[in-house]
Amino acid sequence: MSEADFFHEGDLVAVLTTQPLDRTLDYRAPAGGCFPGAYVEVPLGPRKVLGVVWGPGQGDFDRSRIRSVIRVLDVAPMRVEMQEFLTRAAAYTLTPLPAMLRLATRAPGLSDPPSMRKILRRGDAEPDRMTDARRRVIEVLQEYGGLAFTPRELADMAGVSGSVVKGLVKQGAVREEDSPRDLPFPALDAGRAGKALTEDQAAAAEALRAALRSGDYGTTLLKGVTGSGKTEVYLEAVAECLAMGRQALVLLPEIALTAEFLTRVEARFGARPAEWHSGATMTERRRIWRMVGQGGAQLVVGARSALFLPFQNLGLIIVDEEHDTSYKQEDGVLYSARDMAVLRASICGAQVVLASATPSLESWTNAEAGKYRRLDLPNRFGAAVLPEMRAIDMRAEKLQPGTWISPTLRSAVRDRMEKGEQALLFINRRGYAPVTLCRACGQQIGCDHCDARMVEHRFLKRLMCHQCGETKPMPEACPSCGVEGKLAPVGPGIERLAEEAAAAFPEARIAALSSDLFGSARALKAKIEEIAAGAADIVIGTQLVAKGHNFPLLTLVGVIDADLGLQGSDLRAAERTFQLMRQVAGRAGRAERPGTALLQTFQPEHPVIRAILAGDEERFWRAEAAEREAAGVPPYGRMVGIVLSGPDVAAVFDLGNHLARNDGPLRRIGAQVFGPAPAPIARIRGRHRVRLLVKAAKGAPVQAAVAQWIAPLRLKGDLRLSVDIDPQSFY
Ligand code: ADP
Ligand code: ZN
Hints:
Helices cover 31% and strands 23% of the residues. It is built from 20 helices and 29 strands. Helix 1 (80-93) packs across helix 2 (97-104). It binds adenosine-5'-diphosphate and zinc ion. Zinc ion binds at residues 447, 449-450, 452, 465, 467-468, 470.
């Protein structure tokens, strides 16, 4: 990496740009010189593009034609360890380095100079005459003396019009100042005492603190049932990290989680951390990016892409709910944030904490093998105990056609309502019905662009494709046979279940929680808070509710279809079902009231269902691990998915066959290639999809072999190839 400490004007420097080129480009350092890692603007053809000074120039260009860096941006240079992280992440995921750099520069206005804005403070003069409105403005300024307000914010806080504020400025009672737009985040107080920990919690917290004090890299799997205090424990590690003067990052799987979480952080450290997620405004993103780089943000709470922020001194990464599938980015650069967190920490000497009630088999295995430290919190905090889990054998239940809540589950719900407690009915399917069938011709309504069925969303009065997002109005007549009035919904989604519950419990207050039923993340958060406060008797939810929310009054969980995840051929079907069922069941009985979880299943003797009911997690993992080991699949073997796509099905298959025949580089490392076969979803957005699956032994250099294998390909026309290292989903 960078050998020089500084490049003087005219020195040759290699610049990595965000443009899709397969190498760095040489430029001359600008007047004033630049440091390695400097963010720069460089000319590329007629354009100016963003880049980073990656090291000394390669010198293999015609020197007379080398142009100069236009200017060095006014942001902290990229650190060597970040260069190394991007380089290694690119090599691991077989992603071109410029695409990695794009991930690391996803903040708007990076090339703008630090901009200023007007802020207001109390001035020396007194207003000529005091009105109520003017008094309120001055009171706000006095009360929040330390804070800076924009004119708009001050007027809002005081509840006055903008002209009142303007009048006070004119008289000198309020003073205008220029202030940089990107201010440091308020300091967090790591010295404040946390909650008094239980013995188990205190031991776990101390182990994490000791690991941090070592200053070395290490990963800890923090396993504890929901409500056991994992968050309390890792906040202690955050406190230690901040006290050491290093930065901390908490990754969460879902933005809906952060409302409750941020309040907890604020209670613990006296101020709010920086929040990095897709809903953050441009101004916030820019501010966070800059402040993280110059030490003006101690703690970032964010979604997976926060991992690519330019931390100055990162000491700790928490990956909460580490098993969550949303940590795997499924489009663009395909990376697992959990694995990349471990990589980043290992480069910068940081600690990683993977927290989960139901760890991924990967992490469980790494802990078994001694690669990760493992800490367990076996008990729920306080009086809360794990819910009792039972199966409802659906073969023995009598249900009306078109209904899904069994008599046994109904009476359990009614029982909770009588006690003033809440029940959750869980179904992992959005929309009204997964299938719309014509009773005249037997055809199902499919998407015109994908090999997927259209899902009825009655709330929106439309059919929607969950693959491409295409929607169309619910037709009157069957699109295939033209007969009217014969279209019928088949199977339940959350909306249909809500309808059934409303009919079965007419007196109940019912709240349906599904990401698409709410206009915004904020509206959803508000709804979750209302429910937690008791605003519903029955909550009907999709996967969304399985994650981390606290519903203190909830004592019953009814899983409508526990068998759903067990269908299909996904390698992780058993693991996913196990995790999801445990997580959902963990919603019940968080406070002092014990909970019950009832699983509706047609196969109560299925080994996964039995393991869930028995609650013997280690046995489940051992059995699952043994099966995967015998099959040589992850985490005991390596897999790489290759998806080829294009508008012409024959061309896509030809390319797939060509790859399969020319598999020399794979055979040399003892890897096998399967396929080409139609991908499980064989058409998306009009593009045909074919997949190949590479299987290799655990230690095999699979990335290098795959890179060599696909390197000679010249993709013609509209053909696309994407490589998925360690694929998580198989679609
Ligand atoms: P987890 O992250 O394992 O689900 P939490 O840390 O969220 O568990 O703890 C569950 C609940 O119990 C939270 O409301 C938390 O504030 C409370 N809690 C956990 N440990 C303690 C403690 N030592 N003292 C007081 N409250 C605690
Ligand atoms: Zn579609």
